[in-house]
Specification:
The protein is α/β, with parallel strands linked by helices and 313 residues long. It is built from twelve helices and eleven strands. The protein is globular, with a radius of gyration of 19 Å.
Length: 313
């Protein structure tokens, strides 16, 4: 049994911590507010930007998982000090730094997204994510830390709620047989990364030094449009066909006046207005993790939301 530290307890952090606990690891989770302990998991209340205190919490750990993220509208100001603190703790303790990333750093591209693409984002959030990884990569190449970044597309699955594009805005109305609304083109192919696959990839990469020193894409199934995913979810739920309506740009613009999240989403609207397809073949060729079959993803997600909403099958 080894000791592992997870920063953040959102969907990815919670899934990763619980998977590690199921594997028999000793797990410590760091969040600002802390939580009550659960089987195999100790929760610590700590501001992770405090490098000195974080180092003490991480000391003795074999891996440090970066699964937290500042509020969407504060990435530019809050990510750099958080990333610097994580790198400092990894350097001081020798824990492998396993960073959960996303695909913003590439910016808009034509064709499938691969790890070989340049980090050419022009938007603020994409540039921030690129800089965070570059900082860790340089330290890794200097021999000061051991680091790896695991990049996922939009999360999908049990545990994904308000922040998911196939979650809080889709599943509650769908399970009641009502129309759903979506940002962007509902017929554009889009890659959805299943949350349990994220956790499996993070833990696998942490324990295999062949993964370190570069970025990898989480094993992700074939790209399916919002409409195709809604059709599969509705079929699984037994609600019959559910209409999919594109949220008009004018409505999005008006709502953005009052919603910081919608204002920030303008930078990454290209991901939903055009095909957004992830190629995860590099990781699948090198390591054991594979994407969960789509039917299993859909079934588990519908069941989880039914329980959450107390809706009978």
């Amino acid at each position: 049994m080894s000791f592992q530290v997870v920063i953040g307890f959102g969907p990815a952090g919670a899934a990763t911590a619980r998977l590690l606990a199921e594997q028999g690891q000793s797990v410590r989770v760091v969040t600002r507010s802390g939580r009550s302990p659960e089987t195999g998991i100790e929760h610590i209340a700590l501001d992770a930007t405090d490098a000195a205190r974080l180092t003490e919490v991480v000391r003795g750990a074999t891996a440090l998982y970066s699964c937290a993220a500042p509020p969407y509208h504060r990435w530019a100001s809050d990510w750099p000090p958080l990333a610097a603190s994580l790198c400092a703790a990894a350097e001081a303790t020798g824990a492998a730094l396993v960073m959960l990333g996303n695909l913003y750093a590439y910016g808009p591209v034509d064709g499938p997204l691969t790890e070989e693409l340049p980090l050419a984002a022009t938007g603020v959030k994409g540039r921030v994510r690129a800089e965070v990884w570059e900082q860790a990569r340089i330290l890794h190449e200097q021999g000061r830390i051991r680091a790896v970044e695991v990049r996922a597309s939009d999360f999908f699955g049990p545990g994904v709620t308000d922040g998911g594009h196939l979650a809080g805005r889709v599943l509650p109305p769908l399970l009641r047989g009502r129309p759903v609304t979506t940002l962007g083109d509902p017929d554009a192919p889009h890659s959805w990364t299943y949350l349990p696959d994220v956790a499996r990839t993070l833990t696998e990469a942490a324990g295999d030094e062949r993964a370190w020193g570069r970025a990898w894409h989480v094993p992700t199934q074939e790209a399916l449009s919002v409409r195709e995913m809604v059709d599969r979810l509705a079929a699984q739920a037994g609600t019959g066909p559910v209409a999919v309506r594109r949220l008009p740009s004018a409505v999005v613009g008006a709502a953005a006046l009052f919603s910081p999240l919608l204002r920030e989403l303008k930078e990454v609207r290209y991901q939903f207005d055009r095909p957004f397809v992830v190629d995860s073949s590099a990781y699948e060729t090198a390591f054991a993790a594979r994407p969960t079959p789509v039917d299993e993803q859909v079934g588990a997600t519908v069941d989880w939301w039914r329980d959450r909403l107390a809706i009978d099958a």
